Amino acid sequence: MIRGLDRNEVVLDGRFELENGIRVIDADGVAVENMTAQNYTRNGFFWTTNIDGYRGSYLTALRNGDYGVYAFGARNGVFEHSYAAGSPDAGFYIGQCYPCNAVMDDVVAEYNGLGYSGTNSGGDLYIVNSVFRYNRAGIVPNSGSYEGCAPERESTIVGNQVYSNNNDTTPAIDAAIIAQQNGIIVPG
User: Fold this and answer.
1) Cα 65 to Cα 87: distance, rounded to the nearest angstrom
2) CA–CA separation, 88 vs 92, rounded Å?
3) What is the pTM of this model?
4) How far is Cα 89 from Cα 14, in angstroms, rounded to an integer?
5) Cβ neighbours, 10 Å, residue 92
6) 40-89 confidence digits (pLDDT tens)
7) CB of 120 within 8 A of CB of 147?
8) How far apart are CA 176 and CA 160, in angstroms?
9) Phi/psi of residue 135, each to 5°?
């Protein structure tokens, strides 16, 4: 476990020179909590490569170059009580997993290209009790041939607030620009 004392005072700053705030590779069961990652060229918090068990709690991700809080090719995870803003791709991402066995609960994503994106994810994947606002698009579970585990399927999106997602002033990758003006869109 990597735990900060106070997420408003434990701030990792990449100064737009470093790639990732915290990157977990091939390590099962790693929890990261109670800190901020900002100004990284890639991602704030990143779990990747066949991870079994992860948790991100009480995290803040600000102005990162790709994703805020990101799980790729990881299963059995939780993102909770976290905030992401200013990412050109997505504030939160869970992708290339089936079954994911993952829960995203009580997060806020705003001022991103996409609030949530999940390419080729699903199978006991729950996005619940969260807020997606002021992004170009709110929630975007999607299918793509460019990642494994296609297609996206068996995701549950319930109890969320999704509104005012047509913000053309956010940083954005091409996919976020195309998805703009949608609260929840399932492309693929």
Assistant:
1) 6
2) 11
3) 0.97
4) 18
5) 32
6) 999 999 999 899 999 999 999 999 999 999 999 999 999 999 999 999 99
7) yes
8) 20
9) -90, 175
